[in-house]
Amino acid sequence: MPRPSRIGRPSPLFAFGAVLTAAGAAMYALPQYSRALLALCAFTVAAAAAMWISAKQR
């Protein structure tokens, strides 16, 4: 029996992980901007989570 294809939209966790990984790498490379990057990353993840939750309720 063939397995169903999982090609399509990636999981939101994949996107959140990618954002957090990029922010962590930037914070490591640019420690003088780490607080600003952390705040920007937190805002981005919170906005993405809010959009994902609101889209699921429709």
Which helices and strands, and how do they pair?
Layout: H1 12-29, H2 34-56
Helix pairs in contact: 1-2
Jot down its keywords.
transmembrane, membrane, transmembrane helix, mainly alpha, 58 residues
Overview of this structure, please?
This protein is mainly α and 58 residues long. Helix content is 71%, strand content 0%. The chain has helices at residues 12-29, 34-56. Helix 1 (12-29) packs antiparallel against helix 2. The radius of gyration is 15 Å and the shape is flat. The mean pLDDT is 76.
Would you summarize the structure shown here?
The chain is mainly α and 58 residues long. It contains two helices and no strands.
Q: What is the CA-based Rg, rounded?
A: 15 Å
Structural class based on helices, strands and sheet pairing: mainly alpha
User: How would you sum up the global shape?
Assistant: flat
Largest sheet: none
What is the helix fraction of residues, given as a range?
over 70%
- How many DSSP helices? 2
N- to C-terminal distance? 34 Å
Q: Which residue ranges are poorly predicted, with pLDDT under 50 across at least 5 consecutive positions?
A: none
